[in-house]
Amino acid sequence: MMDEGKTAGAPTVTEESKRDEELKASDEAVAFMASIEPEELQRCVFPESLVAMSDGGRVLGEFSVSVEFTRRVQPCLLLHAQSHGAIDGSPCGTTVTAYLTADLEVLEEDYHEYIKLDNHSVEKRCHMVQHDRQMMINKCTTVGEEMTKECVSYPMSALRGLVTEGSSLLLMRLMALRKKVPENMIFIILDQCLHINQTTFSELGVKQIEVCGEVMEVFGVQRMVCSVKASSSTWQCYFLDDGHLASRTQVGSPVTMKLLQQPAKTDKGPEKVPLVWEEDMQLHSQYLERKDKLKAEHASYLREQPEIRALLSEFMQDLLIMKPDNIYHFAREYFLSFSSNRSSDSNLKTCST
Q1: Is 262 exposed, middle or buried (0-12, 13-18, 19+ CB in 10 A)?
Q2: Where is the Ciliogenesis-associated TTC17-interacting protein N-terminal domain (predicted)?
Q3: pLDDT at 133 > cutoff 80
Q4: Residue 304 and residue 18: Cα distance in Å, rounded?
């Protein structure tokens, strides 16, 4: 039996919480997120997959990411990332599902990580969601039969420049497409202990590597994640010209994620993204606003003209009673009776037939 769980409430004013308040994203990082254009996001909407390989070339698992446009309270991006494989014969995996605004602000994210050991399993789940300009975070850690729960919240004003596991993947795609990582890219994160910490992105430059048997030029982005109680971790990712990942490695790990099959080529020449208004967040938002405005205007007109509903109701009643074979002829004759100049209209119809 699992115990009922230990619950941690909101952080108290301790040295750690004071430290959280002092950690902030750099102005350059915040400006980068604010500079993202809809056209850039369009180029980021695609799926990709890599395989996890050992130093000896043995396949250990898979890694996949998909990005698409969707809508919740507002138009947003849905990112889904998943990895699964085995470490020393023990199955493990991670799944991330994130809803992001156009400037990569997190609306909601669900994170799930597991590893199945011989004598017990370890599972971590963390869910965060915005509500009333507060980020509510619930984390559940299960080790064997013991479960620990943590619940914290932060005002969104304290999370300016927040990057999560989900948004960081999209952020690096954007940097790779720009082929430039500005200086001082310091963002904030929520670490394993749910404390505010920092993560930095830096440029690794351009180099040539072998991708699918072909030597190709790739652009590198490095991400360093800080932690209060654990050592920092560093990831190095290299991207193709179109933003697809070519390789992804955690520094110090014997496992490398590699692209084994080149993505399908698009039309040659200057890259142009076809305009699909349903997937363009700005156009889709304008469409919905216009739709709501028209619905309100139509409803207002119907309220001011109650005879419309009465007229249509009577027509439907007569139609269902008479059950005519030619509905168009029946409708013409029915509404013709409301004309103030029926004889003229009848003569006109006779002459035109």
Answers
A1: middle
A2: 28-254
A3: yes
A4: 60
| Cα atoms in the 13 Å half-sphere on the side-chain side of 39 | 5
**CA 76, CA 72: separation in Å to the nearest integer?**
7
For residues 56 and 62, what is the distance between their CA atoms, to the nearest angstrom? 16
Percentage with pLDDT > 70 across the chain: 82
CB 29 within 8 A of CB 15: no
Give the tens place of pLDDT for each residue, 45-80: 999 999 998 888 888 899 999 999 998 777 899 999
Bridge partners, residue 100, by sequence: 77, 106
Rounded distance between C-alpha atoms, residue 38 and residue 281, angstroms = 7
* Residue reference for tokens 């507060």: 134
> pTM for the whole thing?
0.69
What tokens were used for 137? 């975070």
Both tokens of 157, joined, read 């004003």
